[in-house]
Amino acid sequence: MKKLLFLACCALLAYGLFRPEPPPDLFNESDKFLHLIAFGGLSLVTRFAFPGTPGWLLWPLLFIQAPLSEWLQHLLQPTREFSTMDVLANFCGIALALLFWVCQDLLRKRLFSTA
């Protein structure tokens, strides 16, 4: 079930990134917010779906994916522009997911070590 959720997130991200037209502007810089949410969500789902993968391998791969996906978007859809701000939003989403994961892991260990 975890892997299915991961595949669904990948499919949604691919749809959003590689469609010919950008998403509509819901508010000023809503595109950046969508990048942040998409990459943060994908990162959390990836960590959840692959718990046996060491963090030293998983998180750098996610951070490499951030600029690579933006570059591929422009390569595969010439109507879409490469944006360093989108890459930064991708990085921020992954960093927030990493921070969340580390905090919940520390909290979980602390709660279970005192019990």
Task: Summarize the SSE layout with pairings.
Blueprint: H1 2-18, H2 30-49, H3 55-76, H4 84-114
Record keyword descriptors for this entry.
4 helices, 115 residues, single chain, mainly alpha
Task: Explain this structure.
The chain has 115 residues and is mainly α. It has one domain (2-114). It has helices at residues 2-18, 30-49, 55-76, 84-114. α2 (30-49) crosses α3, α2 (30-49) packs across α4 (84-114) and α3 packs antiparallel against α4. The longest helix has 31 residues, at 84-114. The two termini are 30 Å apart. The relative contact order is 0.15.
Gist of the model:
This protein is an all-alpha fold and 115 residues long.
- SSE string: HHHH
How many helices in DSSP terms?
4
Give the averaged pLDDT, no decimals. 93
What structural class is derived from the secondary structure elements? mainly alpha
Amino- and carboxy-terminal Cα gap: 30 Å
Q: Radius of gyration from the CA trace?
A: 16 Å
Number of domains: 1
Q: What is the share of helical residues?
A: over 70%
Q: Write down the overall geometry.
A: elongated
Low-confidence stretches: none
How would you sum up the major sheet? none
> Strand fraction band?
under 5%
Number of strands: 0
